[in-house]
Structure formats: C-alpha cells, structure tokens
Amino acid sequence: MEFAVKFGFDMLAFISVMVLIVLGLGVIASMMGIFNFAHGELVLLGAYTVYLSDKAGLGTWPGLIAAPVVVGLVGFGLERTIIRRFYRTPIIAMLGTYAIGLIIREIVRGLLGGHYKSIPEPVGGAFSLGGVEFSVWRSIIIATTLVVIGGTYLLLARSSIGLRVRGALENPMLARACGISTSRLYALTFTFGAALAGLAGALIVPLYQLSADIGIRFLVQAFLSVMLGGVGSFEGPVLGAAAVGGLAAWLPWVVTPVLADPLVFLIALAIVRVRPQGFIAVGRL
Amino acid sequence: MTATTGAAPPVAARRGAFRILPAIELAVLALLLVVPFLLADRPELITLLTNVVILSLLALSFDLCWGFSGIMSFGQALFFGVAGYGVALVGRDLEFSQLWATLPLAMLAGGALAALLAAFLLLGRKAPTSIFVAFGTLTGAYAAERLVAGWQYVGAGNGLSAIKLMAFGEYEFVEGLDFYAVALTALVLVYAASRTLVRSQLGLVLAGIRQNEERLAFFGYRVQVFKAVVFSLAGMVAGLSGALYGYHQGFTGPSNLGPGLSTTAVIYCLFGGSGTLIGPVLGTVAIEVLSYVLADIDAIRQFWPVLLGVVLLVVVTFQPTGLLGLAVSARERIGTYGARKAAR
C-alpha cells in the first residue's frame, strides 16, 4: 500500500512536469498552427537560468523566479524577429524553429562545456503523511502545475484577453475585422508559451541533471502528448501529457529501462497514427 | 500528334541556350576527379575528401526525401547508422567484409528499415500530416540512439571500433586514394541513378505531389505510396553511405544514428540547395571544407555547431533555394520531365 501511494505520487509529479511543458507547446500549436521544435530548448533555457543564479552564489530561488520572465522575453524576441515570418508556411516554420532550437542548444552546450551539472532542490527534504514520506520539492511541482492549469483555464475562459484569444482562434480574419490585433495576440501567445516552458525547466532541473541534451527528450515527449491529446483544445494536451507521462513513469517498472523510452514513443505514435485527431477533437478550441 | 508538336517549341527554343546546372555538375565531377591527385602527398586531406564524398551521399538521400518528395526527414541518420552498425557486426561476428556483398546488404538494410518506417508513418487509411511524419522520423532516430547507447551487444555508449577493413578478394581498403575511388564511384552511380529517377515519369509525379498533393490524389495517384517508395530508396542511399562511413572511420557509435547527424544532413542539403541533386553535394563540400579550415581557430571550433544552426536559420528564412539558388534560375531548377526526345 505504502509503495502504491509513493509510486502514484512520483507518477503524479512526473505527469505534472509533462503537463507544464506540454501546455506551452499546445497553446502555441493551437493558436498559431506552429509546432515549435525549439520548445525543448526553451525548457533547457529555463533550467540554465536556475543554474546560472545558483552558480553566481544567489541560490536557486532568484533563478526560479527569473526563469519564466527571461524565457518569456526570449520567446517574445524570437516571435517578433523570426517566428512571425513563418505563419503562412507551417512546414518551413518547423525547420526554422528547429534551427532556433539547435542554436540555443549548442550555445548552452558551449557554455556548459559539455558537462553534466546537478542543481540542489531549493527546498529539500520530505514530509511524512500517514506514515508515507513525500518529497517536498515534488509536491511543490504538483501544486505549481495545478495553479498554472487553473490560471491558464481562467485566463482563457473568463478574461477579456481569453475571449479575444478564442475569437482569433475560431476565425482570425473575422477577429482582425473586429479590431483585434491578431499579430499582437500571437506575440502574446508565444511569449506565454515560452514562459511556461521556462517555468517548467526551472522546476524540473533539480530532478534531472542539467545537460544540453535534455531539451530534445522533452521535445519528443511533449510533441507526442500534444498529438495524442489533439491540437486546438485546452484539455487535449493536458490529457495527452497525462497519458504520456503516466506511460513513461510506469513502463520502466515493467520492461528494462533501456526499452521503456522507445516503447513509450512507439505506443504513442501508433495511437496517433490510428487516431490523428487526438483524444479530444473539437476542431480548433 | 498536335499535342507533341504543341509541346515542342519551348524545348526547341531552349535548345542551344546555356544551362548552368549541367555545367556545375561537370565542374564538381572534374574537381572530385582531379583534386585527389593534386593532394596525393597530404593523406589527411584525402581522408577529409573521402568523408565529404561519403557524407554527400547522406545529404543526397535527404534531398530525395525533402527536395523531391516533400518528406521532412529528421531521421536519415537512422538508416546511415544502422548500416554502419550492420557492417561492423558482420565484420566482427562473421569476419566478413567483402564489399561486393556488404555494400549491397547495407543498402538493403537501410532500404528495408526505411520501408518499414514509411509503412508505419505514411501508409494507412488516413493520410498523415507532414508535421507528424517529420516528428515521427525525429523520434525514430532519437529512440534508436537511446536504444543503441544502452545495448551491450553493440558496444553501448562506446560504439564499435576497429571495424574489419573493407575488402575485395584479398585486397583490403585502408584510408587513401583507393578508398576514395570506391566512395566516388558509389557517389557517381547513385547520382546518375537519382538523376534518371527525378527526371522520369515518377519524378514528374513527385513534382506534382510537391506542388499540390490533394490534386494528385484526386487524379488517382496514391500519393503516400509514391512517397513511401522514394523514402525507401533514400533509405538505401543512406545505408550505402553509412556502410562506407563505418569502413572508412573504422568506428561507429550511437551518435551516428541520432538526430544530430540527421540535422547535419539537413543543413548540408538546404545550404547547398534542396530540390537539385548537385545542391546537397555542393553543400556538403562547402560545409565540411569550411569546418576543416576553421577548426584551427579555437573560438570558432567551440561554437561551430552554433554557426551551423545560424546557417540553417538564415537559409530557411531568407534563401530557401540555398547556394545554388543564387546562380540557377527557378525555371532551370524545376526543369523538364519525361520523354524529351519524343518531343524533339
């Protein structure tokens, strides 16, 4: 029983990480029809911010708070200068974002000198509940994820910005005719998605070792989640992330860990192949 | 009859006009034939040149996918790497490395694997989106790299080294002019075959698919089958390239089948100019030679991959036709198809 609870908790923490990463990718994909191949590297950038602040002797907290802001600003800059050229050509966008990801990854690799760095948890230790030990940091990740999901949902469903976003999603041309600046909305969306990626990177870096290649792993898993869940809805990517995250956390217990990752990809790809519209198919949001 | 005569005038009008692409092709071939003799006393440059020729094959295989059939493949290195591991294992476990058998087998392995992947990604009742295909190939390469890096039988993270030398009868090929000759022969043969392929009726269908996939499907072409066929052929080319690379380096490792090398192939091809056959070769030559020349400067060597990323970004954003696009007109890049002799 104790094992089951602990295992469920770890799985939940892992799923939370996936949801955080996927939410940013999903929002950008739904809103602008652009699959951001640099998303994994935005996560990496968030993680790197925490590393920098830790290395500068400030501790991890300033980095943790700065990460979403910094990565959001980077995202904003990228959208204004490069991404906006690609809205008409989603396939070229894929290549372009991939190139951006490559640049970020290799810069970070150069700066890290190809080493693995571990970063301490900002809040270490564990608390005990009903005789079971829970890691404090993982609990914080789960709580943050819940807050972010709730906040994003409220933003989209209840605020006036959310109304405009949904309008622009439904019919961009009509939205423009109504005086909504879709160009500004797209910039905002991309910034938001990037900031979420930065936050995710900052939160997870104590759990993983920081290396330049963590981005691609998260990119692959996040992509699968978005495709699995279906583009265009809010719930879809979250559900997809839960499925992929759950699978990725559970499979290593059943098969050898070497096989687990490829197997997750294979299963998820097969499902997407059979059901390309994803779990939730509602057109575009 | 009227249809044939109707098609004739533009061909006749263009006859005699100077065409740049064949000239470039001839120039590159001449260079590749002559330069090694000029460099005969610099073995390290011969090695570099052999690498360039072998990697050109990989770039060519990516071009067949992207430039000619619109499949964005981030996984060409998968077939490359598997063939490399294949010849390494055959050499180690069977002590066999006769090139007349291993090279065709490597092509077969690459082609078969590509066909399998294409069947999974492309074929089926529902046509996949191009994003899905791109992502599927990337995932394939990534998963393969992870798998191989954790598999003791194939040397795990260390890869396989001291690959048995490629041989023909008793003769063994080491790095040098004779290996270069083998690689160049392979490149010329593959190039000639690709040239025929993309100017054939099949090439015409592929051009149609690139222009308007839906319309071609409406005409009754089974678009996904065509793509799968070209993808498999490209897999064969990548396999050949990988086998030669393995023999030449005497080593193969997990990074040889991952997204990293796949991306390099993408950069070679787009930099040179995708959609033409000589483009990827030019791109490979340009980038590899630049990399060799600039490697002496420390500051640049460390951030060379960043530069490559910038090159990719600039090409994608501002110059989608690559280096060749600067010299060759769109009309000539697209070219003509099929039975030109009949039209004359």
Automatic annotation (TrEMBL), chain A:
> Per the record's keyword annotation, is Transmembrane included, yes or no?
yes
Q: How the protein sits in the membrane? A: Multi-pass membrane protein
User: Mainly localized where?
Assistant: membrane
> Can you say where in the cell this protein is located?
Cell membrane
- Keywords associated with the record: Amino-acid transport, Cell membrane, Membrane, Transmembrane, Transmembrane helix, Transport
What InterPro entries does the database record attribute to this sequence? ABC_transp_permease, BCAA_transport_permease
Parts of the chain that traverse the membrane: 12-38, 58-78, 90-108, 136-156, 185-208
Which protein family is named in the record?
Answer: Belongs to the binding-protein-dependent transport system permease family. LivHM subfamily.
Q: What is this protein called?
A: Branched-chain amino acid ABC transporter permease
Q: Which organism is it from?
A: Belnapia arida
Automatic annotation (TrEMBL), chain B:
Q: Does the keyword Cytoplasm apply?
A: no
Question: Which is an annotated Pfam family here?
Answer: BPD_transp_2
| Annotated membrane topology | Multi-pass membrane protein
Which keywords does the record carry?
A: Cell membrane, Membrane, Transmembrane, Transmembrane helix
Write out the annotated subcellular location: Cell membrane
Tell me where it mainly resides.
membrane
Q: Which residues cross the membrane?
A: 20-39, 45-66, 73-91, 103-124, 131-153, 173-193, 225-245, 265-294, 306-328
Name the domain of life this protein comes from: Bacteria
Name of the protein in its database record: Branched-chain amino acid ABC transporter permease
What is the taxonomic lineage of the source species? Bacteria, Pseudomonadati, Pseudomonadota, Alphaproteobacteria, Acetobacterales
